[in-house]
Design goal:
This protein is of the alpha/beta class. Helices cover 44% and strands 20% of the residues. α3 runs antiparallel to α14 and α4 runs parallel beside α5.
Amino acid sequence: MCCTCIVTKVITNDRPLQRMNRSVQSTTGKNFARSAVYLLLTVLTAIVPVSISGMASAQPAGNLIIFHAGSLSIPFKQISAAFTKKYPGIHVLREAAGSRTCARKIIDLGRTCDIMASADYTVIDNLLIPGFADWDIAFATNEMAIMYGPDSLYAGEINQKNWPQILLRTGVRYGHSDPDTDPCGYRTLLSWQLAEQYYNQPGLYQKLQKNCPPKNIRPKETDLIALLESGELDYLFIYRSIAEQHRMPFVTLPDAINLKSAAMARYYARASIRIAGKKPGEYITKKGKPMLYGITICKNAPNREAAISFVRFLIGPEGRAIMQKNGQPPLWPVRVSGRVEELPRELKNSIQGTPLPMAN
């Protein structure tokens, strides 16, 4: 065979080699693609947990300190339990007292808290705004009632019409909370003044005061329950919600007396009393007005983010449902007083606020 033929044969037989090279290249490309995909998945797998962890750590956490009215003890306990299920990193620390006592802890004692919730929104407006808080959200209502026990004197007789006569009978003991520390206390006295007008009994207010000695007056309304249960008192003036929460019998009062009705605001304003003001020796005149509970976040709140989340939860569907279940009808839409422009953006987005005038 000549040399030319040999060269031709070799060139002709090069086709299998070309096919093999193309096959190798194809396989190498596929392996590279697989490797790239595997590498990408590995990176994503590493990143996703970090992202989720970052998201979880972004939730509010730490202690949340709340000073609140005694009449909010039961609903706030339930709301705190539901709230911490949603925000497990938050530990709610609640401290109950008369609303004005709560404010005094902040003003006079320099106690630090994140949230102050009052049985009367004007406590916040008059004592905390503007020095210690900027705004106040009115979020719930209530009404005055007369609570008693099954063994109270004349328990089988007392009703909405004859309670003044029953309380003034010899041997009957009744009480209320301190007007200087607790809204339920001054609301009791205001309701007595309104009762004098409603029942057309001149002098009734003074008679009720005279027959209620200082030993029957305690710092907050919930302090009186033990006296009633032990038989030390026959009757006490308290919020209807507390009587319902403790499953105790109570006398409902007419709307003209119970401070519940927004429609009777002008009528309630006929009654007024003087109570202690911001400083020793100062006094504030409290006029009768429909009941509205208020809540605020203090200016120096240590855990502001958690406080905002709690207020949002309180005025949201779950919080409102718990308040309703406990006999304290939620106010919706809520109303806002104070410097409304200072409301946190998260709360502005959650509420339909209409400003309430600053009031005594």
